[in-house]
Design brief:
- The chain is mainly α and 263 residues long.
- The protein is built from ten helices and two strands.
- The chain has a two-stranded parallel ribbon.
Length: 263
């Protein structure tokens, strides 16, 4: 199968295709919100780079925008609302910011007979922004679960967990109880400071999770269950105890002999 090399080129909001899949790479401070608002204006107008007529309009409830935080969704909603209102005013009265080349080029590429229709669409969209589909990822997921509750076998009313620490601790406590209470005294001593409490076990797991997040690796080979590891450790302890007494006795006799020779 031949390899496919992606085409990379500078982003032009006025001509970026609005169909299909478009990947946009941008670092901090490069105008992501401005570009998103510009593309939003084009979607409301149904604008394409190959036609001088507005196409099929999309309105705020039909345009899904997803971001990471609630603060970002609020900012996007207001920035897009302001941009739509500004664009509506420009199409109606020709009043735009002194250096707003995007709006000037957008209007110039459309038939003047359609400008009043464009202004009306943009004005309706600006007033409809309270119902815009702008969500965090978890917010959109929650909405979909509610909308398709029967299909997903989910509850109509769900509580979003903001802090997962208590859930993690509960899961660790359940797991810890399953194998800790049946351990013998020697094995318990080996776990001292490592996993002698659910909190200690959770702390060790968090360290492992942080390492995995910093340096993702292929899935490791299946590890033996804790019971097997502890069994092997207990057997090693028994072997050690069997050998320890003769070793100590031999070592003591040798030391005594050397001290006598030195005296």
């Amino acid at each position: 199968m031949p390899s496919v090399t992606p085409l990379t080129q500078p982003l032009t909001p006025l001509t970026l295709p609005l169909q299909g899949l478009q990947l946009i790479e941008a670092s901090a401070g490069t105008g992501k919100t401005w570009t998103l608002a510009a593309l939003y204006v084009r979607l409301v107008l149904g604008h394409t780079a190959t036609s001088n007529q507005p196409g099929v309009a999309l309105y705020p409830p039909q345009i899904l925008v997803m971001t990471f935080t609630d603060a970002a969704t609020a900012e996007l909603r207001e920035r897009i609302r302001a941009r739509l209102a500004q664009a509506a005013k420009f199409f109606q009265k020709g009043a735009a910011a002194p250096h707003d080349d995007f709006l000037r080029d957008l209007r110039a590429g459309l038939d003047p007979a359609s400008w009043s229709e464009c202004a009306a669409r943009l004005d309706v969209a600006a007033q409809w922004m309270d119902e815009a589909a702008i969500f965090t990822i978890h917010g959109w997921s929650s909405r979909m679960l509610k909308t398709h509750a029967f299909d997903s076998a989910s509850l109509f009313t769900q509580t979003r967990v903001e802090d997962s620490e208590q859930l993690k601790l509960s899961a660790v406590q359940d797991y810890w109880r399953q194998w800790f209470y049946a351990l013998d005294a020697d094995t318990l001593a080996a776990l001292d400071g490592l996993a002698d409490t659910p909190q200690a076990l959770l702390a060790k797991l968090k360290d492992r999770w942080r390492m995995a997040e910093r340096a993702p690796a292929p899935a490791p080979a299946a590890l033996p269950p804790p019971d097997m590891v502890l069994f092997e450790w207990s057997r090693w302890q028994q072997q050690r105890q069997t050998l320890e007494a003769p070793a100590r006795a031999a070592w003591t006799d040798e030391v005594v002999a050397q001290v006598r020779e030195a005296a």
